[in-house]
Design a protein that fits this description.
The protein is α/β, with parallel strands linked by helices. It has helices at residues 2-16, 50-63, 74-77, 87-98, 131-147, 174-191, 216-225, 260-269, 296-313, 349-358; strands spanning 38-42, 67-73, 78-80, 83-84, 102-108, 118-119, 122-123, 154-157, 196-202, 234-238, 277-281, 317-323.
Length: 363
């Protein structure tokens, strides 16, 4: 009898459970903005609740930013070679498109089946991709390009390959990254000839110990020396401002916003002046304990001035996307001080000021 009562109680609780929240795409929207370069790097890939994805992308549009960079981890969508499940990626892309946003897809994150378990007695990481695995990554990239043709045109190949921790904890290797581009580029273009394949996304660093990192200018030079020119359509650039104002002059020995101009000089030197560049990560941090942090007020000022500077001076740049719109959960550290909204989508002062700035000429 007690067991029967328990079953009845469970059944009643099931009936009392609220229905799942129905989230629809809604009507097609357009982004109204004063600056068509404005964008943010989003991290909705790790967001569990669909309503947050939709509302977050609505907030990006309402802020006046037409561009988003989103991470699409290879391991999330190809559980075994040739076995794809695009549902989670479709969700993000479709909500972004419905808000009128242009998506730049960052591709990477190696599944366990595409890499050796161990190398030299150490387990491999999700950034480890050897020559044997590059063909599988090229297949995935082509499958992604084909599946999202008409919805996602811009594809960023890897992230910060000039850092050892982004290159499988191996010495960085511009020639090996170029080999990746040689294999990935033609597969993507065959799958979707309209795709814009973006290389680079190099970390701005002054390090020259290849076991740890290689400065982005040298890495790009060595990419060209290895024959990369014919295997990308645009350069992705990361140019964090650190503590400098956005108009501070560039120098090979300093990391700042205008370091992007030095990378542009490398492109021009190698006959690539007609190719555009996309700023896929930039920004300032306002954590008072962070060595490269600035005050919240200074962060807002520099962010808005950076957008104005790029629009006035960088005709070769297609977007300036700031790291990072939101994180799925508090990072409990300096990374939180890059965000524009909280994990629960509460707008921070920089969000409000960005929206005011981007709408100042459209009201």
């Amino acid at each position: 009898m007690k067991f029967l009562r328990l079953l009845v109680l469970i059944w009643l609780l099931t009936l009392a459970r609220p229905a799942s929240l129905l989230v629809t795409l809604g009507e097609q929207q357009i982004v109204r903005t004063e600056n068509v370069l404005a964008g943010v790097h989003t991290r909705f890939v790790d967001e569990a609740e669909e309503w947050k994805i939709k509302r977050g992308l609505e907030m990006v549009r309402e802020m006046g930013a037409p561009w988003v960079v989103e991470f699409f981890p290879w391991a999330y969508y190809e559980s075994a070679r040739g076995v794809y499940d695009w549902r989670a990626a479709d969700l993000i892309v479709d909500h972004a498109n419905r808000q009128g946003l242009t998506v730049i897809a960052r591709l990477g994150f190696v599944p366990a089946w595409a890499r050796p378990v161990q190398v030299d007695g150490h387990e491999t990481t999700w950034t480890y991709l050897d020559e044997a695995g590059v063909d599988a990554f090229a297949e995935f990239s082509a499958a992604f390009a084909k599946h999202f043709a008409g919805r996602v045109r811009h594809l960023q190949i890897w992230n910060e390959p000039n850092l050892s921790n982004e290159w499988g904890l191996r010495p960085v290797d511009p020639a090996a990254y170029t080999t990746m581009l040689r294999k990935v580029y033609p597969r993507i273009k065959a799958a979707n000839p309209d795709a814009v394949v973006m290389a680079g996304a190099l970390a701005p660093t002054l390090e020259r110990n290849r076991n740890a990192a290689l400065d982005d200018i040298t890495f790009l030079e060595e990419m060209y020396a290895a024959g990369a020119r014919d295997f990308f359509d645009a350069l992705a650039i990361h140019n964090y401002g650190m503590t400098d104002a956005p108009n501070a002059p560039p120098s090979p020995e300093r990391i700042n916003f205008r370091r992007a101009e030095l990378l542009r000089e490398v492109m021009a030197h190698h006959g690539d002046a007609t190719k555009p560049a996309y700023i896929t990560e930039t920004g300032w941090n306002d954590d008072p304990r962070y060595v490269n942090g600035v005050t919240p007020a200074r962060r807002i000022e520099y962010t808005l001035r950076a957008l104005d500077y790029a629009r006035a001076n960088w005709l070769w740049v297609r977007c300036v996307t700031f790291w990072v719109f939101k994180l799925p959960a508090p990072a409990q550290g300096y990374r939180d001080a890059f965000t524009f909204v909280t994990p629960s989508l509460e707008p921070l002062p920089i969000y409000e000021e960005m929206r005011n700035h981007l709408f100042s000429a459209t009201k």
